[in-house]
Amino acid sequence: MRKPRNVMHNGGTLAPHCAHASPTTEISMTRQHRLGLCTLITAALLAPLSARAASAKATQALNCQVPSAANGYRGNCPYLSDVLKGDKTFRTAFKKTLRANQVPELAGPEGPMSPVNVGNQVYISGNRCEAHNCGSHNYVIIYSPTTQRLA
């Protein structure tokens, strides 16, 4: 069996690893398959780093582990978008409160929701800001799973 060559049609050579050729360079079919395989392997290796719960209940944030130096910044608190997906009661209160206060529903960076003690009651807190414009375009919410109210 002939060993595949890493040769471009214009006579140059390509490195045998996952480096990408310029978009104007024609490359061999073997090289295209290798790039696809490298992309697939890279995605598979990085997937656990970005995995989060697809949906969560607001009550999960009451007992979650907040990221800190003590736990190597490995928390398990759900994000605001995860709770919005997974908890209909929370989603209804969230949207109702934003509408009543004429606040737009931002779709930018967010932090994990976490438990907050206020007086003798435990609430959950979360935050979100406008993508590429966080400055004064953000909000912090406080939610009581007991009363099902958002502030």
TrEMBL record:
InterPro entries in the record: Inhibitor_vert_lysozyme_sf
SUPFAM superfamilies per record: Inhibitor of vertebrate lysozyme, Ivy
Highest taxon listed in the record's lineage: Bacteria
Name assigned to this protein: Uncharacterized protein
Species: Paludibacterium denitrificans
